[in-house]
Every structure is written in C-alpha cells, then in structure tokens.
Design goal:
This protein is an alpha+beta fold. Helix content is 23%, strand content 35%.
C-alpha cells in the first residue's frame, strides 16, 4: 500500500512535469510566432530557451538554424544545420541549407558533400545541380585571371549596414542603417537594427561625414536604395510603407518616384506596378531614361525575386517584362544596375561563391549567358549594389569578412584583361586515337608556352590563348614513321572535328586561335571516305639473307608517276608493313635512300615469303600481286570500283576496332560494317570470314571469350542488315595474333598498339 507521503511526491513531480511541458510549449509557441513574423532575432531568444529544456527538439533546431542563416550569422547557422541533419536526416532541405551555409563559411569541399546528399534525395532538383556545379566552378575560378582589384573606402562605413552607393553632384548617395536622430525609437524586428535611410556624403579629398539626403524622402520606415536620372531631376527609390491592417497583413516593398523642384524632392508617388500583394524593389533608370529595371516577386516569375524591365512609352512606363530564365532563377535576382548595354545584378540562384554574387549580362545578347564577375569582387558572403563611376572604377557593397560591420561599401578598379580563348583537339595515327602522347604549344617566335598529354581518346586542350594569334603545335614523338601517319584536328565543344591543323612536317602544325565559341559555328569536317576493301602489305629488306639488315630504312609506296602514297620504316629485322593500301594488281616501292645492294621480298602476316619484288632500272621495286587470272575473284566495292582479289590469298578487307574491354559495335565500327553490307549486296557470289582479336590485357581464356563475342556481335550486326547468315562465318582468336606491340620496348604500356590489336578482320574465303 502506497503511503500518503509517496503519493504527494508523485503528485508534485506530475505537476512539475506538466508545468515543464507547458512552459516548453509556451517558449516554442512564442518562438514560432516571431519566426512566422520574420522577427528572427526575437525568435532565436525563445528557440534557445526551448533547446535548453529539449536539445533535440527538431522544430526548434531547424528554425533556429534558418533564423541564424537569415540574419547572416553563418557560424551559428552551420552549428545548428549540422545538428538538424543529424536529428532529422529525412528532411532534405536541411542538407541544401547546410551546404549553402558551409559555402558562406568558405568550406566549399564540405558544402559539395551536403549538396550531393540533397541531390540524392531530390535527383531532379535544378537548385541541387546548380549548387554542386557552383562548387566545381569555384575551384576553376580560383586559377582564373582577376579582373578587379578591391579596396575599402575611408570615412563612409559604419558598424551598421551601408550599401548601394551612386555618385550624385560632388559626393555619393547610399543607404544606411545609421541615423538614430531620425529613427532612434524604431527597430526592425528581423535584426534589431535601425531602419534603412538614404544618406549623402560629400567628397573633396576624402568623404565628409554622411548626412541625410532628404527629409522629404526619408520616412519612419525603410527607404532606399535609389536611382537618379541622368539630369538629376527624378529619383526612383525603394520604400516600405508601414500600414497597420491586422495581424495577417504584410507590408510589401514598393518603388516610388519624386521630382526635384528647387532644392526639395516633391510629387512623391508610387510606381503604378507596385502592389500590396507582392514586392517591387531596387529600381534603376537607364542613362537615356528609356528603361526602368527593378526586382519583384510578382506572379508569373521564375522564382522568388526576378529582374524586370519597363520600356518608356511616351510619359508612361510599359508593362513589366521579365528578363527570362537565363537571368532569373528559382531563387533571388536583385539590385539591377544598367550601363552601356550591360545589366549588372546580384543572384543567389546562379553558380556563385555563396550568398549573393554580382553578375553581368548583355542586352545585345537577349539577356543570355550571365557572367559571374568572380573574386575578389564576389566572395562567399553577399555582394551586390555595383555602380561604375567610369569605365574602370566604381563601388559595390558586401558583408564580407574584414569590414566595419554588416554591409560595407567598397571601391573597385576594373583591369581589362586581354581577351583569351582555348582550343580543343584530337590527335590520330592512322585514323586511331593517339593516347598518352605529349603535345607542346609554341608561339610564332617558337617560344614554348604549354605542354599537355592526350587522354585515352586522343583528345587534348590548351587554355589561355591570345585571340587571333598564330600558334604552333608539336607532337613530341621520335618515331618519324608515326609522325607521317599523324593527323591533328581542332574540335568543337562536342569533340567533333571542324578543322584539320596545317601540317608543316615532322610533327609540327600551325593554326590561328579563334574565339572558342566560333568552333561551334564551323561545319563538321567531312573526312575523305576510304574504301572498305584495302590490303595490308608486309615486306622485308635484306642484303644477302632475310634478317641481315637493320638500318632503319624508310620505304615508300609510289604510284606510276612517282608520287608517294604511303610511308613505312623498317624495324630491327628490316621488316615493314603498309596498312590500308587500295587493292591493285601491282605495287611500286622506293627506298628513301636508294641502295642497289638491298633486296626486297613480300611476306605474309606470319613471315612466310610470298614473292620477291623485282628491282627496276630507276631504283623502284615492283611487286605484282596477281599472277594468274584463273585464281582471281572480281568484286565491285562500295564505291562501285571494279577490283580483283586472289581467291586463296590471306586478304584483309577491313579492320573494325573496339573500345577497351568492350565487344559492342561502336559508331566507327558500324560505319565500316555498313560498307561491308553494301559490298555483299553487290556481290552475291562471295562469302566472308570474320576473325576477332584482342590486346594482351587480361587472361588468355578471357581474351578468347571476348574475341568470340566481338566476332559474333559483328556477324549479328551484318545479318540484321539483311545478309544471309550462311554467307558469314565468325571466330575469335583472342590475343594470339597481334599486329602491333602491346608494350613499348622499355616494358611500359602501349595504348596505341593495344588499340590496333582490338580488331575484327574480314576475309574473302571463297566464291559460291
């Protein structure tokens, strides 16, 4: 039986628990009321009281983090967002805001992790993709040339916010939270700071003490920023009119105008596009007075605040025109400033450093492709309110570290950087990508500027080239036989060939640097089509017996007029090979250095001697492929040329190359296979054999299986095009018959050689 004393203790604790719960609810309720009213400083006080009693209260943690972020206290915001993601990992917005706060604190790498978590939960989110991209962009911008220098201004900034300056008469007009003599009893609940007012500071050698710009324009609530017409007769300014219309009414930001009469601003009136339903703010009048820009969250926009422009129509302003989705985002675009066909504005929805960044965009480009003005003009905090005093100098506002407090006014100098461009290119040897090959860039004085290495696809890029300058590219390759087979292309942004660089010989090429976007405007390069039916010819030089010559002689294939149509260099055994010669009944060979003591024989892929080539009086060697009409097959190739092939000869029609570890028919392979289909359709009395090969990477059994898959996929592709399956046989030979070294002489990997070995060959095996 429970004693009365124990019962009293239980009752006391029950009452205490009830009071504690009620008190917790009351603190949270009061905090939420301030939070809903956007009085974040007051809300934080009561959220802190809530968290002292319940440190894991999800609502309090998330809202206090948001409140600190809105007040730009990013240090505390980071602390609470870290906790919010821990105690409520299902709320994806926490990761987005946490990442943005980390960016504000210059923790870009950590921010990217949080944005990626947000994107995982919201894979179609544009803002998520943008935030991840912004972290990548920041790293690239770190090494970009700096277009601005930035410095502080003496005698202007205060411990409160000072921002959005513009020149007026012999000083500057700006907006500030200072001024207790006018609004000393009024505080803005959001940050407990004085209301915004318009100030003016006269300048002689330095700025004098700031004074109120106009008693007629400064009200008992927020006023500014402003824009003044070029004749100084009309002012456009932002104002929040304080109206008491019940607890559910929110005072919206509006734009007003006033006219200068004598020394006073009169005829103050509201812009007709202002409203009690949405905000209209930050007006800017163009120098010629024909355009009025402003920011607004009016219906029909792309997100929160968008940039609009009104065109003057007589004495009235035309309907607001949204500047479109290139400028405006789902977030905020604010503080427009227009000068010489360029609109400057701030955004926290485009790729930037954090907070608001300043961007520029040309009206002549239909407001397309906004450009981030980068550091040091932009920072991880809010940067906005730019104004040029001339073509090179001006002011802007920022709440970055190192200022006097809150937003401060800074001056900048624009350093015109010489316009630069870039090139992307592709290097090929015998129509195959030349991977891991070093290429150097020289100026026209032969001074080395940069060196790069081609990637696995033979692609390369050079940045920071001067516009319209002439440059040279040099392939750093000692093997001249490879250089003779090299082609260097300039590509567009999609990696497609648009220009063939001018070959100066010995691996050297010249070109003129164009604006990079011009490469996208060039037509794609139409390469010379090559017949599918080609032949590989193997040969060997010797003096008395095969193998006794190792002089590294260059051998040429020439036509009847002595024109060189192919080059090859002999190896240590005097052997050479010519790939993709057009099928003909005879070939003429010449030596780069004529030597009557040298003999030339033709061999097959396995080194078996086929026939000696006869040396002629003029030093040429003739090899006749076909000796008997009875052993010939007459074909019509895909170019409608009549050619003859020896029926029993080991004749390679074409080679189809594969990507590493892949058996799929790629785009280039499909192009060759389509040619073969044409040949088979034109020659119904022939059959073909497919043999597929691999490089030496991987085990023997794996490569044998891979080569079989390659052969079968090529066969299936041809059959799918309507060719009878009885006309095609296919087999895989793995890595047993390489046509190029898989490794270099020093034992290192030879990607170009391995690429040649990953092939499928087609042979005429017999007539039907």
């Amino acid at each position: 039986m429970i004693s009365k004393k124990i019962k009293r203790v239980v009752v006391v604790f029950s009452v205490f628990g009830l009071l504690l719960g009620n008190n917790l609810f009351a603190q949270l309720s009061k905090a939420n009321t301030y939070f809903t009213q956007e009085k974040y400083a007051d809300a934080i006080v009561y959220y802190n009281k809530t968290l002292k009693k319940d440190q894991n209260n999800v609502e309090a943690v998330q809202n206090i983090a948001y409140s600190y972020r809105k007040l730009k206290d990013y240090v505390n915001a980071e602390i609470y967002y870290a906790k919010a993601t821990e105690i409520n990992p299902e709320e994806s917005a926490n990761y987005l805001y946490y990442g943005q706060t980390l960016k504000n604190n210059d923790k870009v790498r950590e921010a990217k992790v949080q944005f990626e978590k947000f994107l995982t939960k919201n894979p179609s989110s544009l803002i998520g993709e943008l935030m991840v991209q912004s972290c990548v962009d920041i790293k690239d911008w770190e090494v970009a040339p700096k277009e601005f220098t930035v410095s502080t201004i003496e005698n202007i900034n205060s411990e409160n916010a000072d921002f959005c300056p513009l020149t007026y008469e012999d000083g500057i007009v700006f907006v500030s939270e200072r001024g207790p003599d006018l609004v000393n009893e009024n505080n803005f609940g959001g940050n407990n700071k004085p209301y915004l007012s318009i100030f003016y500071a006269k300048k002689s050698k330095s700025y004098k003490k700031a004074k109120h710009f106009s008693n007629q324009l400064n009200s008992v609530y927020h006023d500014g920023p402003v824009s003044i017409s070029s004749d100084n007769k009309t002012i456009y300014f932002t104002r929040v009119v304080k109206e008491e219309r019940g607890k559910d009414f929110t005072n919206k930001i509006k734009v007003f105008t006033a006219d200068l009469e004598g020394k006073k601003w009169k005829n103050i009136k509201e812009l007709k596009y202002s409203s009690n339903k949405y905000s209209v703010a930050h007006p800017w009048i163009s120098e010629d007075g024909t355009k009025l820009f402003f920011a607004s969250d009016m219906p029909g926009g792309y997100g929160k605040m968008d940039i609009y422009v009104c065109n003057r129509e007589g004495n009235e302003w035309g309907e607001p025109i949204n500047l479109g989705k290139e400028v405006n985002t789902s977030e905020n675009e604010v503080f427009p400033y227009y000068r010489k066909d360029v609109l400057y504005f701030s955004s926290d929805g485009l790729s930037g450093y954090g907070g608001l960044d300043i961007f520029s965009v040309f009206s002549t480009d239909n407001w397309a492709n906004p450009k981030n003005l980068k550091t040091p003009l932009n920072s991880s905090k809010d940067d906005f309110g730019i104004f040029f005093t001339d073509d090179e100098n001006g002011y802007f506002s920022s709440d970055r570290e190192g200022g006097m407090g809150s937003d401060d006014i800074y001056k900048f100098n624009y350093q015109s950087i010489e316009e630069q461009t870039a090139i992307t290119g592709l290097l090929e040897y015998d129509k195959l990508p030349a991977s891991n090959t070093e290429i150097s860039l020289f100026d026209e004085n032969d001074d080395l500027l940069q060196t790069t290495t081609t990637d696995e696809n033979g692609k390369f890029k050079f940045n920071k080239l001067k516009m319209d300058e002439s440059y040279f590219l040099k392939i750093n390759e000692e093997d001249e036989s490879l250089l003779d087979k090299a082609k260097l292309y300039l590509t567009n942004s999609n990696g497609e060939k648009v220009l063939l660089a001018n070959d100066l010989g010995k691996g050297k090429y010249n070109f003129q640097a164009l604006p990079y976007d011009k490469y996208d405007e060039l037509p794609l390069l139409e390469e010379e089509d090559e017949s599918l039916l080609t032949v590989s010819v193997f040969g060997q030089l010797y003096e008395k017996l095969p193998g006794d010559y190792s002089g590294g002689m260059e051998v040429w294939v020439v036509d009847d007029n002595g024109n060189i149509i192919g080059k090859a260099k002999t190896d240590k055994d005097g052997k050479f090979v010519f790939d993709k010669l057009s099928p003909d009944e005879q070939y003429l060979f010449m030596l780069a250095e004529d030597d009557s003591n040298l003999n030339l024989i033709i061999i097959d892929e396995n080194g078996r001697v086929l026939e000696a080539a006869k040396r002629l009086i003029d030093g040429k060697y003739r090899y006749v492929r076909l000796n008997s009409e009875q052993n010939m097959i007459t074909l019509i190739n895909e170019l409608d040329e009549v050619i003859k092939i020896a029926e029993n000869e080991n004749f390679v029609i074409s080679k189809i190359f594969y990507d590493y570890k892949s058996s799929d028919v790629n785009v280039m392979a499909a192009k060759e296979l389509d040619k073969l289909v044409v040949i088979l359709n034109k020659n119904n009395d022939v059959r073909i054999e497919l043999t597929s090969h691999t490089d030496s990477k991987g085990g023997n059994e794996y490569n044998l299986r891979l080569s079989h898959e390659r052969a079968q996929k090529a066969r299936s592709y041809i059959i799918a095009k309507g060719i009878n399956s009885n006309r095609i046989t296919a087999k895989g030979l793995g890595e047993t018959q390489p046509v190029a070294p898989n490794e270099n002489k020093d034992g290192t990997d030879n990607p170009a050689g391995r690429a040649k070995n990953r092939r499928t060959e087609f042979k005429i095996i017999k007539s039907r």
